[in-house]
């Protein structure tokens, strides 16, 4: 079954805390922003996370539902032309995919390379800095950190290089507790994203490479007060358990990857956490040594009980994948009346006209899905780009992949599209239009399989132009969530690898690798404002307010996927990398 109610794969803390390695750290507390730094700290409660102040940005997509929508409406279509730079600040070196948090006038930034800072959100002046030196001998130091979390009076951080999850005092940056989640002296795993906090539990995913963690990858929960591990939910089905027979006869020790490497979302009413998973590894079945099978729970949406980690239901977006088409990305939670459009080829006709609580998801295959988030029932799916990965989706939601994209011998070449059509370039939803907006990378992939040597993906890969509109590698598209109807599309030569924010002023903000940071009209997709930054834009934009003034913030710098994979597709366009910087914009102050 592709979507069922099951409660499996949770491991209470029999695997609890691993030995903690000694890791050098430093904390700097300054008085550069005395008004902010000395103000009483207002703890962030469960109620605050569920209904945050309009002025704050408290989670990676601002709210539990993953909308990336700020109700702030001071900046509008009419006055956005007056937007100017309020402040900027240099960031640590490394890959930039980050999203900051803002609470009561303080911005908290997860820098690349093990640094977290608290800044005055009106000036960028430093309040405190936490720096974590990478330990010696780690299997794979990672420099990218996409997000952190805030709860009570703590900042929660998943250290990228050494597999630890820790709590910092939100007022000072001092370490409150630290727990080693996996052994990075042994395991090929790392944190590229940070936590979400649900009911006092710090929930984290991770990236687990082939040859990585014994027993497979997992989502973990830790007590927010103490750091005690509460449960693990494994993302690879075990032999002898439901789904365990979908791995083509592979023993557990040869089942790899399926990484939950992006954060999840949460529905407080249903009390369900939703998490996406990645691909099996190595990419090709011939390299894995597996027979045919769906490879559960790869490329899936998992609905988890936050108290136990048990899987309540799952839906698999791409069974038996050989093309690195992850579905690990954000889930967006919306309530709709389901009215499937005649533009859809893949939809479930039976629930038409019904009110549903739904979940929107998309992945590297470039196809978006809308599911009932109570049950996992399939409602509709639609490609956002020209693609050859999915051949068919039945009315009941069963996905059939293109079996021509199968490596039958080592060295076989596959031409796959899209190549990461939707990846960590975050989408957004606006209740003003009932639309989800998604940046897209319009490119394809040339892939050859090799014999697996015990590490890596056993694959030689090269990004190539799409056969459809190859001169337009960057796109943003808007879709009605209730119907699946395409509302508008913005197309351009430069890949758009920056995450979006939707605002109450009817605007979308985001940017591309050609340094252009833009505002688009939510209703039409028209570019209504543009500025040029110092480097490629690969971070996620946010909006917040302090003392009644609305700000728009975004990080630029690149140094990751946007740095090298895309340059051949953009002849004549600059995409400089480095000089990582946080940019913050606002309207002029009235005199």
Low-confidence stretches: 1-22
Q: Nearest-angstrom radius of gyration?
A: 22 Å
**Biggest beta sheet summary:** 5 strands, antiparallel
Number of E-type strands: 45
Which short descriptors sum up this protein?
five-stranded antiparallel sheet, 591 residues, 4 helices, mainly beta, disordered N terminus, globular, Methanol Dehydrogenase, Chain A
Detailed description of the structure:
With 591 residues, this protein is mainly beta. The chain has one domain: Quinoprotein alcohol dehydrogenase-like superfamily (Methanol Dehydrogenase, Chain A, 8 Propeller), CATH 2.140.10. The chain is built from four helices and 45 strands. Strands 1-18-17-15-14 form a five-stranded antiparallel β-sheet, with no helix packed on it. Strands 2-8-7-6-5 form a five-stranded antiparallel β-sheet. It has a five-stranded mixed β-sheet with strand order 3-39-40-41-42, with no helix packed on it. A hairpin with a 4-residue loop joins strand 33 (428-430) and strand 34. It is globular and about 65 Å long. It starts with 9 loop residues before the first strand and ends in a 5-residue tail after the last strand. The relative contact order is 0.14. Residues 1-22 have low confidence and may be disordered.
């Amino acid at each position: 079954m592709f979507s069922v109610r099951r409660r499996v794969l949770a491991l209470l803390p029999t695997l609890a805390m691993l030995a903690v390695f000694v890791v050098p750290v430093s904390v700097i507390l300054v008085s550069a922003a005395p008004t902010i730094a000395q103000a009483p700290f207002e703890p962030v409660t469960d109620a605050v996370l569920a209904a945050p102040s309009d002025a704050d940005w408290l989670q990676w997509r601002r709210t539990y539902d993953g909308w990336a929508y700020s109700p702030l409406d001071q900046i509008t279509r009419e006055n956005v032309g007056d937007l100017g730079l309020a402040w900027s600040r240099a960031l640590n070196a490394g890959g930039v995919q980050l999203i900051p948090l803002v609470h009561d006038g303080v911005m908290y930034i997860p820098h690349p390379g093990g640094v977290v800072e608290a800044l005055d959100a009106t000036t960028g002046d430093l309040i405190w800095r936490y720096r974590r030196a990478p330990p010696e001998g780690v299997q794979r130091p990672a420099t990218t950190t996409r997000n952190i979390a805030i709860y009570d009076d703590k900042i929660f951080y998943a250290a990228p290089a050494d597999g630890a999850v820790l709590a910092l005092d939100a007022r000072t940056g001092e370490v409150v507790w630290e727990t080693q989640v996996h052994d990075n002296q042994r395991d090929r795993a790392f944190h590229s994203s940070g936590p979400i906090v649900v009911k006092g539990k710090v929930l984290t995913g991770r990236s687990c490479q082939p040859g990585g963690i014994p027993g497979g990858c997992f989502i973990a929960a830790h007590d927010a007060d103490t750091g005690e591990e509460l449960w693990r939910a494994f993302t690879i089905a075990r032999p002898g358990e439901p789904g365990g027979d979908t791995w083509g006869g592979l023993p557990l020790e040869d089942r790899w990857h399926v990484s939950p490497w992006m954060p999840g979302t949460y529905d407080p009413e249903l009390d369900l956490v939703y998490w996406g998973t990645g691909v099996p590894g190595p990419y090709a079945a011939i390299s894995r040594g597996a027979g045919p099978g769906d490879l559960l729970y790869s490329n899936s949406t998992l609905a988890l009980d936050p108290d136990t980690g048990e899987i309540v239901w799952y839906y698999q977006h791409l069974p038996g994948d050989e093309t690195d088409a992850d579905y690990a990305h954000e889930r967006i939670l919306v309530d709709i009346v389901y009215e499937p459009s005649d533009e859809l080829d893949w939809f479930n006709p039976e629930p038409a006209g019904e009110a549903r609580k739904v979940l929107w998801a998309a992945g590297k295959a470039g196809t978006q899905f809308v599911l009932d988030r109570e049950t996992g029932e399939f409602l509709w799916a639609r490609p956002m780009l020209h693609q050859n990965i999915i051949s068919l989706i039945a009315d009941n939601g069963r996905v059939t992949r293109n079996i021509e994209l199968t490596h039958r011998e080592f060295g076989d070449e596959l031409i796959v599209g899209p190549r990461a059509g939707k990846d960590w370039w975050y989408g957004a939803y606006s209740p003003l239009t009932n639309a989800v907006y998604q940046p897209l990378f319009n490119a394809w992939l040339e892939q050859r399989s090799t014999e697996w040597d015990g590490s890596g993906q056993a694959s030689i890969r090269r990004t190539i132009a799409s056969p459809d509109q190859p001169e337009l590698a960057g796109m943003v598209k808007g879709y009605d969530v209730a119907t699946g109807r395409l509302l508008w599309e913005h197309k351009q030569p430069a890949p758009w690898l920056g995450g979006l924010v939707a605002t109450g002023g009817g605007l979308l903000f985001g940017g591309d690798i050609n340094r252009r940071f833009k505002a688009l009209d939510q209703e039409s997709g028209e570019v209504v404002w543009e500025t040029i930054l110092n480097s490629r834009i690969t971070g996620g934009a946010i909006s917040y307010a302090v003392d009644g003034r609305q700000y728009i913030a975004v990080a630029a710098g690149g140094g990751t996927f946007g740095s090298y994979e895309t340059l051949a597709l953009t002849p004549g366009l600059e995409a400089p990398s480095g000089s990582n910087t946080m940019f913050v914009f606002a309207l002029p102050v009235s005199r």
